[in-house]
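[Solved] Which block belongs to which protein?

Original post:
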Amino acid sequence: MPAKIVVERVSHSFDRGPVLDSVSFAVASHELLCVVGPSGCGKTTLLRVMAGLLVPEAGAVFIDGDQVAGPSRRTAMVFQHFGLFPWKTVRGNIAYGLTNRGRREPHRVESLIRTIGLQDAADRYPRQLSGGMQQRVGLARALVVEPEVLLMDEPFGSLDAITREQLQDELLRIWERNNDISGVFVTHDIDEAMILGDRVVVLLPSPGRVSQIIDIPFDRPRSAGGVRAHPGYPELRYSLWAALRTEREAAAYA
């Protein structure tokens, strides 16, 4: 498949020192690529560069050959801490992206409310929702603008295990219905990366750099339970765990 997104030798530093060191990879059309690594390896910084929210010191990101120079209407981002407007209802939060772009398409908003299963909560405010419900709204708000690129920064990281698996399955179903989206999903969870990703980029820490890119062989459509039950799951999980263990050992003796 041709590359939709190309990350080319991206490096960046903050006052405390270098965070990313010559990170390169590509994301194919309709691929969901997971980036996994320990805390401090630059995963969030990398995603902010890809979203055009941060200009890298070196290197560049390209979407369909066009260099990312700032936030783009082609890209949407889902954050870990929901980022919902407390004064807007579920319906209002989802509609915000369209309104901000001068579009009024209530049918799309209502369709996504049904997709995420919140028909009975459409007029509630974020304070009246569980964490899982809030994250469903955050995902729908990103999808309503029909992005070409969806960037997700540990969006399920603060949720309990049951809700997390439910939302993993929800994202997998949504992904199968949206063939025009390519995505990058950042996580520190090995199982989540295997469940969601077509490939997994493993980052080394301090500064962040690509250690390995591992293919995930499980066919789509898939589910969280189906992946865990696959006979190849234990061996692949061990391979990813070994790669991350090597990262920690390398950092300890650097």
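(Second protein starts here: sequence line, then its structure tokens.)
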Amino acid sequence: MAMGRQNGSYWLSAAALYRLATKAHTLLPYYVSRSGYALPAWHYYLEMTRCCNLRCVMCQYIQWLRETPASEQMEGDLTTEEWLRVIDQIPRFALVTFTGGEPLMRRDFMQLLEHASGRARTHFITNATLLTEDRARRCVELAPKRLGGVGFNFAGVSIDGPAGVHDQVRGMPEGFEKSTSGVKMLAEFRREAGKACPLIHVTTVIQKANLDHLAEMPRVVADMGGDVLNFTLETRSLDLPGYGEADPGSFRTSDIQSPRLDAQRLADALHQTRANAEGLGIDLRMPDMPDDEIVRYYSGETDLRDFRCGSLWTNLVIGADGQAYGCWLQEAGHVRESSLKEIWNGPELRTFRKRTRQGLYPPCAGCCSLVHHPGRR
């Protein structure tokens, strides 16, 4: 039996507890604090770099990657020492997610992961094509024996379909083979170590290219030794000029070229994927909304009055250049100028929280931090 199936009960119980704890952490200040104050951040996202060795068709950085010379793509990024200082400010109870771009493009990434894993629970999101045997083995060494301990708890790998589909979406010939090879190494070294961690989740972006292959993904995850299949929505909000800098209220729904999918095909694909995942013992994670809301999103019918923000009271994002955000929509400060604590409950974020409680913005549609909350109208 694959290790992923053995770990299923760990993941299901941990995921449920994490969701409950996150909601409790968020809801108290959301409903009680009128000043925009939030409890200490629960989840830190560290964007190691915007550089990537793939050219994914749905990537928010695709134009920048194509137009910016490789020699210039890391200009202005935080140095190793600056990232170490950021990590040292993160509370020990928090979860640290390393993301990108492709975090393994940084030569110092393993050093940063090791440092963070010695003081907090860690997680990275990668395409796994650069996950060598030595790196995979070291990741397992950094993992706690059981979920929730200090160390490397979760590995997230982006796979968007079976081999041909994935390679087309990700823009790399044989990319599927390279990515799945990295996952298999993690799963095998984990099995040899007798550990439950790192739990491996495969993230698939629902999009036109893979719509008719979504139901195949539970088998793809099972065959590579993964534990979780995580579906996310494709969003084009980050394509907006001035995103993160302009007033969020200045954007209109018509400004966004939102993706469209056939409603019945999508509904059928989600239904069949659920059935296949259950049959294979793969935990299927969807956006925090019913399936019919996912269909509505891809039909351009999302009503943001039925949602609330699940990020601003929980997550702090640090961009590759040190700019901090509660979400990518609003700058909140810079780590070269302020501490994480000062940024988290500083005037920019408190003001933005208060505004967001009054209503979400058009670019919020499709965000992975949205929480379905009907009845707010």
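Accepted answer:
You had them paired correctly. Confirming on the second one: The radius of gyration is 20 Å.
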